Request: fold
Amino acid sequence: MTDTAASGLDAIVKRIIEDAQRDADSSVEAANREAALVEERACADARRVLDDYRARAEALSASVMERNRTNAQLEGRKLTLARKRALIDEVFGLAYERLCALSGAPRGELLCALALREAQGGETLVPSEADAGLLRERIGEINAALAASGRQRLSMSEETVAMDGGFLLRAQSYVKSCSFTALLADVRAVHETRVAALLFDGTVENAHAQR
Reply:
C-alpha cells in the first residue's frame, strides 16, 4: 500500500472514528438529558405524592382536632346542664322542705287554698295524718267557700292517709292526690323555666321569654 493510500485510509478511519465518537457523544448527551428528565419527573411525582400525603395528614389532623373540640364542647355543655339541673333540683328541694315545715295558721291557709283549687265539689276529703287536725278545724271554712263558688260541700273522712302532708279527694270515679309532693310537682312544672332564668340569667323577662 502506498503512502498516499495509507494516508487516505487513515483519514477515512479517523473520520469514521470521529463520527462514531460524535454519535456516541450525542447518544450520551441524549441519554443524560432523558435521564435528567426522568429524574425531574420522578422528583416532581415524589413531591406531589409527599404534598398529597402532607395535605391528607393536615386534613386528618384538623378533622381530629375539630372532632375533639366538638366532643369537648358537647361534654362541657352536658356538664353545665347537669350542674344547672342539680341547682334547680336543690332549689325545689329546699322549697319542699320549707313547705313540709309549715305549721299553724300558714299551713292551715295553704291547705284551705289547696282544697278550694282542687275540689270539684261533693268529694270526700281524706286528710294526711299530719294535717287531720288542721283540716277538721277548717272544713267549715272550706265548705263555705265552696258553696259561695257554686260547688257542693266536702265530706270529712274519719280515716287518715299516710303521706307527707295534704289530703286526698275521693269521689266515685276518681281519687285525687293533693299531697305536698303532688303540689310541688305542679308548681315545678309551671315555674321551673322562670326559676332557671332567675338563677342563670338573672332576669324575670328572660324567664317569660323562654316559656
Notes: The chain has five helices and four strands. The chain has a mean pLDDT of 78. The longest helix spans residues 3-101.
